[in-house]
Specification:
Elements: H1 3-14, H2 24-54, H3 58-65, E1 70-72, E2 80-81, H4 83-88, E3 96-101, H5 105-109, H6 112-119, E4 125-127, H7 130-139, E5 141-142, E6 145-149, H8 171-185, E7 192-195, E8 204-207, H9 211-220, H10 226-237, E9 239-242, H11 247-258, H12 260-277, H13 287-302
Parallel strand pairs: 3-4, 3-6, 7-9
Antiparallel strand pairs: 1-2, 1-4, 5-6, 8-9
Helix pairs in contact: 2-3, 2-7, 9-10, 11-12, 12-13
Length: about 300
C-alpha cells in the first residue's frame, strides 16, 4: 500500500528529466509553446511588460523579452518579429538592437533618426506606445546586444558622391554658425550646438542621452514644475546638430549677417522642429507667434 506513495516521493525528490534541445520533438514542442505564449501575450501583454520593468534579474527580463514582438523596417506593415529574429539576421559584428518610438509606422519611417540607419541598411524595430519604449529601456540588453534608440545611434555615414547643391559649409564657417546659433537660442536653452555627421534630409536634429528617461521625466513632472523641468532638460541634456549640407543651414549662414532678426527667428523655429521630431516639444502653441513673424518677413520680401 506504500508503493505508490514511495514511487511519487522518489519522482519528486530524486528524478531529473534531461531534455535534448536538438531533438526534433523537443524543438517542435518548444516552438509550439512559444507560439502559444505569444498569442496569450496579445491579451496579457501589459503584465509581461510590467514583469520586465519590475524584476531586478536580467535573466528573468530576457526570458520574458523572448515573447515581445514588434514591427520592423525589414518587414511589411503588420508583420511582427522577435528580438531573436532581429539578432539572427543582423550583420556580423553589430552589437546593437536599434528601435524607434513613434505614433505610427509612417511617422517612424519619416523620422530623420530612422533615415540615418536606413542609409546603412540597418534594421530598426518600431514601437508605437510609450510603454514599449520604457520596457526596452529597462531591458537595456538582450543576449549581449545593447538595446539602442535610433536617436542615440552612433552610425558612421555612408560614403557616397556629393551631388550638386549638397556641398557642406566649410569647417570654420560651420563652427562660427554653430556658435552664433547657440547664442541666438540662448545658452540657457541648449547644452551644445554643433555640425552633424549624420546622414539625413533635415536641417537639424537633436540628440539626447537617456531620451526615454527624459520623456518620462517631463510627463510625470507636476504641472506647476513642467516649464522649469523643460528648461532644465534643454540646458543640461539637449545637443542640437546642424546639417552642414542643407540649403536652409547654408542660407542661414549668410542671413545672420544680412538680417539677424529674421535669422534668429528661423534658428529658434529649426530648434523647435528638431525637438518635435524627438517628441520633446513641451507646448507647440508657443511656436505660432514666431511662425507668423517668419511668414510676415517672407511676404514682406516678396512684396
Amino acid at each position: 500500500e506504500q508503493k505508490e506513495a514511495s514511487y511519487k516521493y522518489l519522482l519528486h525528490n530524486s528524478v531529473v528529466l534531461e531534455l535534448n534541445p536538438s531533438h526534433p520533438i523537443i524543438k517542435q514542442w518548444y516552438q509550439r509553446r512559444v507560439r502559444e505564449a505569444v498569442v496569450s501575450t496579445q491579451s496579457t501583454g501589459r503584465f509581461l511588460r510590467i514583469g520586465i520593468v519590475t524584476t531586478e534579474s536580467q535573466t528573468e527580463k530576457e526570458d520574458l523579452a523572448k515573447l515581445l514582438r514588434f514591427e520592423s523596417s525589414k518587414e511589411e506593415k503588420g508583420t511582427l518579429v522577435s528580438l531573436d529574429t532581429y539578432i539572427a539576421r543582423a550583420p556580423e559584428g553589430q552589437k546593437q538592437v536599434y528601435y524607434l518610438s513613434a505614433p505610427s509606422r509612417d511617422m517612424a519611417m519619416e523620422s530623420p533618426y530612422y533615415e540615418t540607419l536606413a542609409e546603412n541598411d540597418l534594421e530598426v524595430l518600431f514601437t508605437y506606445n510609450k510603454e514599449d519604449d520604457v520596457v526596452l529601456f529597462k531591458l537595456e540588453n538582450y543576449k549581449d546586444r545593447k538595446l539602442c534608440t535610433a536617436e542615440a545611434a552612433n552610425v558612421k555615414p555612408v560614403d557616397k558622391p556629393v551631388e550638386p547643391g549638397q556641398e557642406k559649409l566649410e569647417k570654420q564657417e560651420g563652427g562660427r554658425l554653430a556658435t552664433w546659433f547657440r547664442d541666438a537660442l540662448g545658452r540657457e536653452n541648449v547644452k551644445e550646438v554643433k555640425m552633424s555627421d549624420r546622414q539625413h534630409s533635415q536641417p537639424a536634429v537633436v540628440t539626447v542621452e537617456n531620451l526615454t528617461t527624459l520623456r518620462r521625466y517631463l510627463e510625470m513632472a507636476p504641472p506647476e514644475q513642467k516649464e522649469a523641468s523643460y528648461k532644465y532638460l534643454l540646458h543640461n541634456s539637449v545637443v542640437l546638430e546642424l546639417n552642414p549640407s542643407h540649403p536652409i543651414i547654408k542660407q542661414l549662414s549668410t542671413l545672420r549677417e544680412s538680417n539677424p532678426e529674421v535669422a534668429a527667428l528661423v534658428a529658434a523655429q529649426l530648434f523647435d522642429n528638431a525637438l518635435m521630431n524627438a517628441d520633446l516639444v513641451h507646448d507647440p502653441r508657443r511656436m505660432v507667434g514666431r511662425i507668423n513673424q517668419i511668414l510676415k518677413a517672407v511676404t514682406d520680401v516678396k512684396q
